[in-house]
Write a structure and sequence with these properties.
This protein is α+β, with helices and mostly antiparallel strands. The protein has one domain. The chain has 3 helices and 9 strands; from the N terminus they run E-E-H-E-H-E-H-E-E-E-E-E. The protein has a 6-stranded mixed β-sheet, with no helix packed on it. It has a 3-stranded antiparallel β-sheet with strand order 3-8-9. A hairpin with a 2-residue loop joins strand 5 and strand 6. The chain starts with a strand and ends with a strand.
Length: about 140
Amino acid sequence: MKRLIIGIPLIAVACGGSSFDSTVQAKLLQAVQTNPHRIDLREYVPSDWSRVCVLTPGTTREEFERVLGNEWRGFDAPDAEHVTLVFTANGRVAESTQLERRRGDFAAQGTSYCLPRDSAVFHVADTQVTEFRPVVPLR
């Protein structure tokens, strides 16, 4: 069973949020290919959000809602080919999307995790990899 690794407690979410438009998704995935040393989610996700959670394949609704402390109607479990990014603000889901792992593997750490907005900066851990590029937090 996978477990969520959370550095800072999440605010409870009362209902589902809106999803990204395809332009934001495309820009984010293109950044993985063109700017592998610094992928700052604050530059690609324009909405007001305070935390991002990366949900890896195998994360269940129950696991995620236990962390949130409330039900999230918009939850869609990531399959083996996708990772879900969930952006929260003021106790609500501001944005969420599923991204193809083949184009940028934000699930490279293996377990789900959350980061505050100020720490939501990533990099490609192995730039020689062309598919399933491991995208991990820049620390």
